[in-house]
Write a structure and sequence with these properties.
There is one protein chain. This protein has helices at residues 2-5, 26-31, 43-56, 94-106, 151-160; strands at residues 15-18, 36-40, 64-66, 79-85, 108-120, 129-130, 137-139, 145-147, 163-165, 170-174, 178-187. The longest helix has 14 residues, at 43-56. Strands 1, 2, 3, 4, 5, 9, 10 and 11 form an eight-stranded mixed beta sheet that branches. The chain has a three-stranded antiparallel beta sheet with strand order 6-7-8, with no helix packed on it. It is an alpha/beta fold and 189 residues long.
């Protein structure tokens, strides 16, 4: 909501929320009558977002579907914004993380914005424990287990994708619990 109010999300172009759940973020775009799509692997979440859309009078229930973030079947360069909020820290490993990011990048239009918010190692060094046999997964002090990104790797991936940081990488440390990184990447024309 904060980023929409700042004008960082252009609702004149189609928007995708990858891992939309029940519509926590998508609801704002539906209310603004934006061309918004949502995918999630959980069929119950898709049913919930369709019910929400119907309640709001949003007529495009077919835009919300059960799909994998790793292979969406949307055309190349279809969306002006792709949002992936608090989803990628559930990727099985770095290979899947990269695959998800590259798929979001593939469906993003030139000059489009990719917004990813995910758990990170930033500020958590020495407070998390690697989980054996699960590449990139850590046990966190809050009792959860997640795939954690390294911000240096995000910068390197930005360069590989030939994207530009739309805003500086930001990490928010939830004291003694976890760190969440926000990664805004713009596709070059």
């Amino acid at each position: 909501l904060d980023q929409m109010q700042k004008g960082n999300i252009d609702i004149r172009h189609p928007i995708m929320e990858a891992g939309c759940g029940g519509g926590r973020n998508t609801v704002y775009f539906m209310r603004m009558k934006a061309e918004v799509y949502g995918i999630d692997q959980n069929s119950e979440a898709i049913e919930a977002i369709r019910q929400l859309a119907q309640h709001l009078g949003y007529p495009h229930l077919d835009r919300f579907s059960v799909r994998s973030i790793y292979q969406t079947s949307f055309p190349d360069a279809f969306f002006g914004t792709v949002i992936c909020n608090a989803v990628l820290h559930f990727c099985p490993d770095k290979t899947y993380f990269d695959k998800a990011v590259r798929e979001c990048w593939r469906i993003l239009q030139p000059e489009g914005i990719l917004f990813i918010r995910t758990a990170s190692l930033e500020g958590m060094e020495g407070k998390v424990k690697p989980i054996r046999d699960k590449q990139g997964w850590y046990a966190l002090p809050d009792g959860t287990e997640r795939f954690l990104v390294d911000t240096k790797e995000l910068v390197a991936l930005s360069e590989q994708l030939e994207g530009s940081l739309y805003q500086p990488l930001r990490s928010v440390l939830l004291h003694e619990m976890r760190s969440m990184c926000t990664w805004w990447l713009q596709k070059r024309p």
